[in-house]
Amino acid sequence: MKKGLSTILQPIVDVIIPVEHAFISERNLIPGSYSIVDAATQDALLAATSGNRLISSGGSASNSIACANLIGVPCTYAGLVGDDEYGRMYHADFEAVGVSSPNARVKSARTGVCVSLITPDGERTMLTNLGVATELTHSHIDANTIEASQWLLLEGHLLTAGEKNVSALRKGIEVANAHNTKVALNINSEFAATTQREQVLANFLPKIDLIIANEPEAIALSNKSTPQTAFSELASRCPSVIVTCGKNGALIQHEGKQLHVPAYTQNITVVDSTGAGDTFTGVLLGGLALGYPIERAAQGAARLAACVVSQSGARLPASAAQIWLEAVAV
Predict the structure, then answer these.
(1) Which of 215, 246, 280, 16 lies closest to 127 in space, CA to CA?
(2) Residue 178 pLDDT > 80, yes or no?
(3) For the chain, what is the domain count?
(4) From 279's CA, which of 6, 132, 214, 290 has a CA 20 to 30 Å away?
């Protein structure tokens, strides 16, 4: 039985920098915003900041496979980084825990970086340069790694990054469909759900097994007005659906079952919600890949999502694997 999880993603290195509110206002940045910037703009921001920085491998699907790997699922990823400081760090982070990629670092290329400016009130203003990640194309997709996996996870950010990235997604689906590997698409952004709605509905949903979206993404993709009606619409179009609803848990359809999974809140103090949805996705797919029924896989996913929101940063410590085992055993 196949147990692995493969993904096609945009590798990103997160550079988290504490700043004062004045730093944001002096540069006419919108507090709490997310924007794509050119390399020169990002380099100027990095040069203008000093003090402590937290640098870690990031990106939505990257966080998800890190969580799946944590609970014992073999993982691989297709995605491009440069042969620079950040790219070497990204590869080393995953190689250290046994997560591999068929794609070598690209010479003389820039790795994708997200600069997160954190003000004293905890608000994040994010400025991302995708670097060489936008050059991923169908030629970078390795059929063997997808064939060996039970699930292929597609990162929705690739839908908005150009035809090269979209061709990589199409190739991944083609290979997965040919080798009985199940396909999950995580929409990942309301922007992707809005601007790529017709493409997703017409060209992706008929060929995949699972669509994953949060409330705003599901509403935008379904053109409905509430999470519940959005869930129902997507459930009529795709065999399996997950709509994550933050503190209200998640709505799930899988293998003919529909269920609501409450968020885990016992003795949890919310510190930082970043990465909660990524964790839920990775742990749930990991649980399914390991053979758990949907109820227990979702239970374990909700438990580790709660662990993420109770800490700073989106990556869980190794000790979280025991917490997951206890959760799925119930």
Answers:
(1) 16
(2) yes
(3) 1
(4) 132
Confidence (pLDDT) at 271: 64
Is residue 196 classed as helix, strand or coil in its secondary structure? coil
Distance CA(132)–CA(297), nearest Å, equals 35
Determine what percent of the chain is predicted with pLDDT higher than 70. Answer: 95
**What local confidence, expressed as pLDDT, does residue 274 receive?**
66
Best CA proximity match to 227, nearest among 248, 206, 258: 248
Tokens 């003919």, located at residue: 256
What is the residue-wise DSSP string for 100-169? B-SPPPBTT-PPPEEEEEE-TT--EEEEEE-GGGGG--GGG--HHHHHTEEEEEEEGGGGGS-HHHHHHH
Phi, psi of 259 (to 5 degrees): -150, 155
pLDDT band per the 50, 70, 90 thresholds, residue 60: confident
| Number of C-beta neighbours around residue 26 at 10 A | 10
Structural domain containing residue 17 = 4-329
The pLDDT-based confidence of 193 (bands split at 50, 70, 90) is very high
Give pLDDT, residue 272.
Answer: 60
Tell me how long the chain is.
Answer: 330
Rg (CA), the chain: 19
CB atoms under 10 Å from CB of 314, counted, come to 26
First to last CA, the chain: 24
CA 199 centroid distance within chain = 20
What's 293's domain CATH number?
A: 3.40.1190.20
Q: What's the pTM value of the predicted model, to 2 decimals?
A: 0.91
Please name the residue that has the structure tokens 């053979």. Answer: 291
Q: How far apart are CA 90 and CA 82, in angstroms?
A: 10
Residue in 147, 142, 143, 149 with CA at minimum distance from that of residue 3: 149
